[in-house]
Write a structure and sequence with these properties.
Radius of gyration: 17 Å
CATH architecture: Orthogonal Bundle
CATH topology: Arc Repressor Mutant, subunit A
Structural class: mainly alpha
Number of domains: 1
Strand content: under 5%
Largest sheet: none
CATH class: Mainly Alpha
């Protein structure tokens, strides 16, 4: 009995999985599907690289580097986020 072919990811699927991909939390099957899509989709390649850059740059940010008014606003928005 032949194995069933995996359904390719859409760009929307990729967006929903990108955080898990970056954290290494995807199953082997989903990682393979993700990497197959990335290899063929220039727009998703750009999206992935933008997220990698954002994570890298935000990792360098210290709380004292953020304007106090901006920090207060961010904290309020996250606190109210449902």
């Amino acid at each position: 009995m032949a194995s069933e072919a995996l359904q390719p990811l859409t760009c929307q699927d990729l967006v929903e999985l990108v955080t898990d991909y970056l954290e290494g939390a995807l199953s082997d099957t989903d990682r393979a599907r993700f990497e197959e899509h990335i290899a063929l989709c220039p727009m998703c390649q750009v999206h992935l690289e933008q997220l990698r850059t954002t994570v890298r740059e935000l990792g360098r940010l210290r709380e004292q580097d953020i304007d106090p008014a901006v920090l207060t606003e961010m904290q309020a928005r996250f606190r109210d986020w449902v």
